[in-house]
Amino acid sequence: MEKGRIAILGAGESGVGAAMLAQKQGFDVFVSDFGKIPSQYKEKLQELNIAFEESQHTETEILKAVEVIKSPGIPDTAGIIKTIKAKKIPVVSEIEFAKRYTNARTICITGSNGKTTTTMLTYHILKNAGLNVGLAGNIGHSFAAQVATESFDWYVLEISSFMLDDMYDFKADIAVLLNITPDHLDRYDYKLGNYAASKMRITRNQGAEEVFIYCIDDEETLKAMKNVKLNAKLYPFSIRKKIDSGAYLEGNNIHININLNDQLTMSITDLALQGKHNIYNSMASGIVAKVLDIRNTAIRESMGDFKNIEHRLEHVAKISGVDYINDSKATNVNSTWYALESMGTDVILIMGGVDKGNDYEMLKDLVKQKVKAIVCLGKDNKRIHEAFEEDVEIIVNTFSAHEAVQVAYHLAKKGNTVLLSPACASFDLFKNYEDRGNQFKAAVKEL
Asked: What is the pLDDT of residues 72-108, one digit of tens each?
């Protein structure tokens, strides 16, 4: 039975996944991408005989839709979105659409920083404990594609604020909000309050059976929580104070005390992930595991042997006593702050790219303490010079990963660290942050 047309804007991982699921559910599917469609996605659409177009949006075809699924990357201010909304056609995210067609339960993780790491760690713990679990959202294969082709009982989903903006009836069984710091403010009228409200949508539709896990040390989170009615069970985590029901740090030990008869205690020295921010990430994952009644021994084991993701504080090589670290995934100032926070002293910092209205003020103290030179990697480095000219003796401009690594190599002495942690998007010189990280790694290996 024909159910009408679904138009899908954007033919990346989420768009093609949504197309697969919509086709399986009996909709007439039309995929439209304003840019060029990457070959692997184009081949998939051709193989499934799904109608698509690239380098344009044909309004007459799109406006035939009963519903539009849009890529998280397309802002509401885009002309085509305004036209669709003026015609009162609903616009939803791929995640919202996919959730209608699965009974699997969802663990949804959001936050300005740490969400990929926490999502991967949570998935690692659940999978090792024998749960039938999928990994999706901002990471891995699209949620919709997995709903169409797999049958998992649980999903761990990494959720961005852009995805949350287009979620309405979606409900997270377990929601995790790690932190709220300024990011992507260009999409939120440069107002942190708008962005924070977007993050709080992770608690939407939750009732007394659901769980909300949050960082009680994060002021912006606490402010944002005052503006919504929370019905879920609340489990906070903190490294500053004792928590009755949640997780906290005491001395060098993490305590997770959701079930008082079966508390989990683990030394932070046994965690695979080091650095203060990773204590938070590990606590959040640990609470999820305890909510699901996973055994303490299994949780400890998984938290101890977890391997972090590529491009996130990834150790590339040690050459002539200098460590080279790839943190290309640091596309905002806060991520770079976390990277510097976990470093020793004497860092050669490679940073720069497309600046999303960054405020570099928060980095100044750490840069003064730890950074001996900044190597700019971007087309326009003016704001980096302005921000740090008084804090660092040497600031050099470079225009390729190879050049940046060569310059850093000459500036570094034995015992120093060369850290690629750009604090900016990569689109001026690279395809994406992975491409930037891979070019950096290749350049280091040529040294």
From this structure: 888 888 999 999 999 999 999 999 999 999 999 999 9
- More confident of the two residues 198 and 173: 173
- What distance, in Å, lies between the first and last C-alpha atoms of the chain? 61
> Residue 201 — very low, low, confident or very high, per pLDDT cuts 50/70/90?
very high
HEC per residue, the chain: CCCCEEEEECCCHHHHHHHHHHHHCCCEEEEEECCCCCHHHHHHHHHCCCEEEECCCCHHHHCCCCEEEECCCCCCCCHHHHHHHHCCCCEECHHHHHHCCCCCEEEEEECCCCHHHHHHHHHHHHHHCCCCEEEEECCCCCHHHHHHHCCCCEEEEECCHHHHHCCCCCCCCEEEECCCCCCCHHHCCCCHHHHHHHHHHHHCCCCCCCEEEEECCCHHHHHHHCCCCCCCEEEEEECCCCCCCCEEEECCEEEECCCHHHCEEEEHHHCCCCCHHHHHHHHHHHHHHHHCCCCHHHHHHHHHHCCCCCCCCEEEEEECCEEEEECCCCCCHHHHHHHHHCCCCCEEEEECCECCCCCHHHHHHHHHHHEEEEEEECCCCHHHHHHHCCCCCEEEEECCHHHHHHHHHHHCCCCCEEEECCCCECCCCCCCHHHHHHHHHHHHHHC
Angle at 59 between CA 58 and CA 64, to 5 degrees: 110
Q: Structure tokens of 180? A: 């709220």
pLDDT at 130 over 60: yes
Tell how far CA 50 is from the center of its chain: 29
How far, in Å, CA of 364 to CA of 367, rounded?
5
**Residue 199 has which token pair?**
């993050």
Please tell me the distance from the alpha carbon of residue 4 to that of residue 65, in angstroms, as a whole number.
7
Mean pLDDT (the chain, rounded)? 92
- From 339, 336, 313, 332, select the one nearest 440 (Cα to Cα): 313
Amino acid making up residue 353: G
- pLDDT category at 183 given cuts 50, 70, 90 is low
- How far apart (Å, rounded) are the C-alpha atoms in residues 115 and 126? 16
CA distance 160 to 177: 11
